[in-house]
Amino acid sequence: MTIGHLYLGLLGFGLAYALLAGVMGWFSDLGGDIHLDAGGHLDAGTMHPISGTVVATFITGFGAGGTVAHYYLGWSLTAGLGLATATGLVVAAAAFGILELIFKETQAGSEYTVEEALGREAEVITSIPAGGTGEVAYMARGQRVQSSARTIDDAAVAKGQLVVIEKVSGSTVYVRGKT
Questions:
Q1: Which of 13, 42, 49, 122 is the most buried (most CB within 10 A)?
Q2: Alpha helices in the chain, H assignment, sequence order
Q3: pTM over 0.70
């Protein structure tokens, strides 16, 4: 067995892994942090630099770089190993960066925090009586959100009026009239 055969074998292994992982929906990546969050939702966590997908990508890049160095460029063993290692690291780093970006974007989700509601403009959809509770609607992360509402100063606000969210307590927002 020559070094060229080893490079081809690693390239083939990496490509087979990529195909298998794609077919299985990336479940083969055992390095990810998959758990249930406090709300009981499945959370895929974040990518790790040493994960099944990143390691397999390194192996694929190593095999591809070594194959090019050995068969196409005719380089020596040392130079070929250098190119194979460099190619593997570059391809694995690129894969990690892309997967990290994907995880960050998908983890952003459509849920929003209380802080994101503060300062938002809302429309009164059910009149808020003096000292009582009504309902407002506002946009958060591209979704229309409805919430029970009271005014900060216990003033009445008619349906259709615009208000600003000043405080959030549980599922109730406290608003003031928009000036």
A1: 122
A2: 3-23, 52-67, 77-108, 114-117
A3: no
Tokens coding 81 = 């190993």
- State which fold the 114-177 domain adopts: OB fold (Dihydrolipoamide Acetyltransferase, E2P) (2.40.50)
Task: Count Cβ neighbours within 10 Å for each residue of 102-117 and write b for 16 or more, e otherwise.
Answer: ebeeeeeeeebeeeeb
Residue with tokens 């794609």: 22
- Per residue of the chain (179 residues), give pLDDT as tens: 889 999 999 999 989 987 887 677 655 444 444 444 444 444 445 556 777 778 889 999 999 999 999 999 999 999 999 999 999 999 999 988 888 887 776 655 556 676 778 999 999 999 999 999 999 999 887 788 899 999 999 999 999 999 999 999 888 999 998 87
Residue ranges, comma separated, of all CATH 2.40.50.140 domains in the chain are: 114-177
Q: What's the farthest any 2 CA atoms get from each other in the chain?
A: 86
Alpha carbon 57 to its chain's center: 20
